[in-house]
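Lab notebook, design round three. We kept the backbone fixed and only want residue identities now. Task for the bench partner: fill in a sequence for the structure below.
Input C-alpha cells:
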C-alpha cells in the first residue's frame, strides 16, 4: 500500500477587524471543508480516522496562527498543519486596522494499492 493524495481543496477566510490570524485561518479551513465531499471514503470502505490530512495555511504573520486550534477544527483523520508566509493584509485608510486574509490548502491522502 502507498500513501496517495486523492483530494486537494482550497479555501479562503478573513478577519475583517481585529487582525486575528487564527480566526482567518479557521475560516479558510472551514471554507475548504465546505467545498469537499469525501463520499469515496464510504464507497471504498475507508475509515475516515485513517486518512491523512495535510493543511497548509498562508498568512502574512505565520507565527500569529494557533496551529493546534486549526488542527483541532478538522473532524477526521490524522491531521498536520503547516503555517507559511502568504495571504494578505489590507490596512484601512488610517492604518489603525487591517483586514486579514488567509489561504488554506487541504490535501487528503489515503493508503491505496
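Proposed sequence:
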Amino acid at each position: 500500500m502507498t500513501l496517495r493524495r486523492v483530494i486537494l481543496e482550497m479555501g479562503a477566510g478573513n478577519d475583517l477587524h481585529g487582525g486575528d490570524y487564527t480566526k482567518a485561518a479557521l475560516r479558510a479551513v472551514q471554507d475548504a471543508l465546505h467545498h469537499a465531499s469525501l463520499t469515496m471514503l464510504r464507497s471504498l470502505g475507508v475509515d475516515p480516522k485513517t486518512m491523512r490530512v495535510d493543511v497548509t495555511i498562508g498568512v502574512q504573520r505565520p507565527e500569529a496562527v494557533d496551529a493546534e486550534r486549526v488542527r483541532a477544527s478538522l473532524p477526521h483523520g490524522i491531521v498536520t498543519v503547516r503555517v507559511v508566509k502568504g495571504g494578505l493584509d489590507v490596512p484601512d485608510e488610517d492604518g489603525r486596522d487591517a483586514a486579514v486574509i488567509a489561504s488554506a490548502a487541504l490535501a487528503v491522502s489515503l493508503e491505496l494499492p
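Keep this in mind before ordering anything: Strands lie at 2-15, 52-59, 78-85, 88-91, 98-112.
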